[in-house]
Amino acid sequence: MSSDQQVSLSVKDLNVAYRQQMILWDVSVDFLEHSLFAIVGPNGAGKSTLLKAALGLIPKISGSVTFWGKPLSEVRQRVAYVPQRESVDWDFPIDACGVVAMGLFHQLGWFKPVGKKERTKAEEALDRVGLFDYRKRQISELSGGQQQRVFLARALVQNADLYLMDEPFASVDAATEQAIVNVLHDMKSEGKSVVCIHHDLETVRDFFDRIVLLNMKVVAAGEMDEVLTHDHLAKTYGGKHHLLDRVTRKIRGNEIVL
Asked: Are 193 and 224 in contact (CB under 8 A)?
């Protein structure tokens, strides 16, 4: 950890169960500020559970979660969450700008109408993700990739310091993928932090700078070159992942060999 990097999210000895089945076992991991963290692991590894438990959306058996050393209740406005697209009712009658404006409710208040100032901020966020021309489009009329970008814009408009994202790259088109990558890198340059569940081992190194390998427990966490090794991947995926050899990279001088 560099001297100017602090821990934005700290998880200590976290245990979570669902229907009497353990999902997370003694998970301890620190996420640094000004970093793009990917959480990677097989299906059922507890990746989404980790984010939801950190946010208090599901109960934990034991353990602690702090944001900048404080409980979430004290710093909630500094944290934004992008859930999985499949968890949302996209048939709700609202346009893209209205969805994004919902991200301002913590500033505006739930019972105050969205005004011109808020819609302008929402439109600016949509412009950042390449959807300004779709701002008045009903969300049910948008493609899956466009809906995902609307979700990202809703998080952006909050101007948070830490963004927790649950598989924003899942089942999106190439244009959406590139738009999200550009936004993530812009966020880091602005001093923001991102913790993102990711499913593609072949792109994780290109999109993020740090990684957590998770399979109910933390297998390894840290910088890509230290964590993304064949041994760590084999422990995470049980040696069964068909990409283990392809994504294991060896550093030879300045050349990275796949």
From this structure: no
